[in-house]
Design a protein that fits this description.
Elements lengths: L18 H8 L4 H17 L8 E2 L8 E3 L5 E5 L5 E6 L2 E6 L5 E5 L6 E9 L4 E17 L1 H4 L8 H6 L3 E8 L16 E4 L9 H14 L3 E7 L11 H4 L6 H9 L4 H18 L15 H7 L9 E5 L10 H18 L7 E4 L16 H11 L6 E4 L16 H14 L11 E8 L2 E7 L5 E3 L7 E4 L5 E3 L1 E5 L2 E5 L8 E4 L9 E3 L8 E2 L4
Parallel strand pairs: 2-8, 8-11, 8-12, 9-11, 12-13, 13-14
Antiparallel strand pairs: 1-3, 3-6, 4-5, 4-7, 7-8, 9-10, 15-16, 16-21, 17-23, 18-19, 18-22, 20-21, 22-24
Length: about 525
């Protein structure tokens, strides 16, 4: 008699069958799956035993997931060493063997957008089934609190959640974790976009996904991995940070320490729950949360090499403190190159949000501003190929660092992504500074991305300041002339420098006629 064969089937999530799935079933598209499942069930019943699960796909895989279309999407995990593993997907069978550590990996055949599908992964004792799998466009959404900010908190949240019925949009929200070393396991679950689930989705990522789904008419998967009040270096790998002079010593130091950062965070969570039950004083978040590499190790590394089209990123507030905007000029591009290297994709699209306006507006031009320096660093990052930026200088909130208008943020991110990742025609950016020409007491400023023309919102075009060689800035009178802006100022007879929207919450009235705001800039390096 053959050795005992044991069966383990992952239960489907309670998802209503779609018309597409019913149609596929009627056409017999799932016959291979049904046959395999029947055989495994008969064998298991005959032997009358069940064993512990031996096949463990990586935690990012599950029911309702979306796989990237048009590439050989990888699926990987653990099993017993030197074990033959088979995978069944879309009528095809793949076979591999685990290595000495029990690692296995498949690269699926390229597939066009569609679904739902089932994936069966089996060895001679175990079987794992993923149901309601879609193939489409996958994006990683990451950053700090404005990316974590949920649809529950967004403008018009009640109506938005009621209307969030997009079964082809799926979200995987990575649970918060920190680690001193790169992890292989991640916690989370793929959720279908419906009114029951959508309120807990990242609002920015949801509105981005909605635009993508409506435009491309394909399933969209969002892997949301973000955490409020976190710096960019925490999201960057240790190997990359060793190349940065400001972080190499700290990374080396942390790698030598014997602390268990995961345990520190678990203890914090336990203490938090205990404090809630007793109305006690809440514990302090472990400082290690923001240490260099802590979040990359725990919340990005386990996702690699999940197939995706690109990254959307909203972060920078934490790095604007203490005049770190200059440092961000090198740190942010380092993070982008690091992630591209990790995914082995030098052209991975990376689209990010430039910081919104915040706090009270200054009556006069300011000379130094931390947020202006951070925005400038973000602007300079566009020098990297395959990057795009959504400007939000006009849709922030003076009273909160978390503005609720995430609808326009998502739309502007998608405009940039549609150009960078999908090479769509049409204007996708607001005006960007090109050059200036000084003639006497006037400066003429030229722009790229003027679209169908420049325009101002309001009675006067505000936000421009000029300075002479004394480096003292005054508000300028600004006039649009075609695709240029002409500046003059009674207090500055010989202007040498221009700044626009240079403050944490500046006046900013310049747009193109497509309704996209101009990017803050300066022509000096003072």
């Amino acid at each position: 008699m053959p050795s005992i064969t044991k069966l383990h089937i992952r239960k489907n999530l309670p998802v209503k069958n779609t018309n597409a799935e019913l149609s596929l079933q009627k056409k017999g598209a799932n016959r291979l799956y049904s046959l395999l499942l029947s055989i495994l069930c008969l064998i298991a019943c005959f032997n009358g035993e069940l064993s512990a699960q031996t096949i463990e796909p990586a935690g990012i895989f599950g029911d309702n997931m979306v796989l990237q279309q048009g590439i050989n999407a990888p699926i990987w995990g653990k099993a017993s060493p030197h074990q033959v593993i088979r995978l069944f997907f879309a009528g095809k069978q793949l076979t591999t063997q685990t290595d000495q550590q029990g690692n296995w990996r498949f690269n699926l055949p390229k597939h066009a957008a569609g679904g739902p599908f089932r994936i069966v992964i089996a060895d001679h004792t175990d079987s794992v089934v993923f149901s309601h799998v879609m193939v489409g466009e996958v994006w990683l959404a990451s950053g700090q609190s404005n990316m974590q900010f949920t649809l529950h908190e967004a403008k018009n949240s009640v109506q938005e959640i009621q209307e969030a019925n997009y079964p082809d949009i799926r979200f995987f929200t990575v649970e918060h974790a920190i680690s001193q070393k790169p992890l292989t396991k991640v916690q989370g679950e793929w959720k279908i976009c419906n009114p029951e689930n959508a309120g807990n989705f990242s609002a920015v990522a949801y509105f981005f996904a909605r635009e993508l789904n409506r435009d491309k008419k394909v399933p969209v998967g969002i892997i949301s991995s973000s955490w409020g009040a976190t710096p960019a270096e925490a999201w960057t790998s240790g190997d990359a940070l060793l190349k940065h002079p400001d972080f190499k010593d700290s990374v080396t130091h942390y790698r030598q320490k014997q602390e268990d950062w995961e345990l520190l965070y678990r203890n914090y969570l336990a203490a938090s729950e205990a404090a809630k039950k007793t109305n006690g004083k809440p514990p302090i978040m472990p400082a290690q949360k923001n240490y260099p590499t802590a979040l990359f190790n725990a919340m990005i590394a386990p996702l690699i090499p999940y197939s995706m089209r690109g990254v959307i990123w909203y972060q920078g507030e934490n790095n604007a403190n203490n005049s770190r905007g200059i440092q961000y000029r090198s740190l942010f591009p380092l993070l982008i190159r690091d992630w591209r290297n990790q995914w082995k994709n030098d052209t991975l699209p990376f689209v990010f949000v430039q910081l919104a306006n915040f706090k009270e507006r200054n009556a006069e031009p300011v000379f130094t501003d931390n947020w202006a320096l951070l925005r400038e660093a973000q602007l300079l990052t566009l020098r990297l190929p395959h990057t795009g930026m959504a400007v939000t200088i006009d849709i922030g909130d003076a009273k909160t660092i978390h503005p609720t208008n995430k609808q326009d943020v998502g739309k502007r991110l998608y405009l940039a992504a549609n150009h960078v990742a999908y090479h769509a025609a049409g204007e996708y950016s607001g005006p960007l500074y090109k050059n200036m020409m000084i003639q006497g007491n006037r400066i003429t400023v030229s722009f790229r991305h003027t679209g169908s023309g420049l325009m101002s919102k309001g009675d006067a075009l505000d936000g421009f300041a000029v300075a002479g060689s004394d480096r003292k800035f005054y508000w300028a009178d600004a006039t649009i002339s075609g695709n240029k802006v002409i500046l003059s100022c009674a207090q500055v007879s010989h202007p040498v420098a221009v700044r626009y929207a240079w403050a944490i919450n500046p006046p900013a009235g310049l747009y193109n006629k497509e309704g996209l705001p101009a990017t803050p800039f300066r022509t000096d390096d003072w």
